[in-house]
């Protein structure tokens, strides 16, 4: 079974800040493999709630990915036709979600929904 395709948030001007964030962090091959596997699980609806992903608020969920030397959160929304990747946030320790990063993801989702409805 093929995973549903992920969409990346695009800004009103057409840029893709999430794609730029992913390029900027220079993921290792190992991290890319972990990321791809988990994103496929989420896209196929096979991810386990509160283990592989967690619903946060206002339509935004997170995937927490442990890399070798770092951990990062991907904020996304499941829009029915496929998941939308909204933001990427790196953390040094597992702690509560950074409110600013979550607020940014919620803002992007609202803006995206308004433009695509």
Can you describe this structure in just a few lines?
With 117 residues, the chain is of the alpha+beta class.
The neighbouring-strand order within the major sheet is 1-5-4-3-2
Radius of gyration of CA atoms, rounded to a whole number: 13 Å
Shape: globular
In DSSP terms, counting alpha (H) and pi (I) runs of 4 or more, how many helices? Answer: 3
Give helix and strand order, one letter per element, not per position. Answer: EHHEEEEH
- Share of β-strand residues: 25-35%
Mean pLDDT: 85
Number of domains: 1
3D architecture notes:
The model has no long low-confidence stretch (mean pLDDT 85). This protein has one domain (7-115). The longest helix is centred in the last third of the chain and has 17 residues, at 99-115. It has a five-stranded mixed sheet, sandwiched between helices. With 117 residues, the protein is an alpha+beta fold. The chain is 35% helix and 26% strand.
């Amino acid at each position: 079974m093929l995973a549903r395709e992920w969409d990346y948030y695009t800004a009103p001007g057409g840029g893709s800040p999430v794609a730029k964030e992913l390029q900027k962090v220079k993921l290792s091959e190992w991290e890319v493999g972990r990321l791809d596997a988990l994103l496929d699980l989420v896209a196929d609806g096979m991810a386990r709630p509160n283990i592989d992903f967690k619903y946060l608020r206002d339509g935004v969920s997170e995937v927490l990915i442990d890399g070798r030397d770092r951990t990062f959160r991907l904020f996304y929304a499941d829009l029915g036709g496929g998941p939308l990747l909204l933001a990427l946030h790196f953390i040094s320790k597992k702690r509560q979600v950074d409110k600013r990063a979550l607020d940014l993801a919620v803002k992007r989702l609202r803006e995206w929904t308004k433009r695509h409805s």
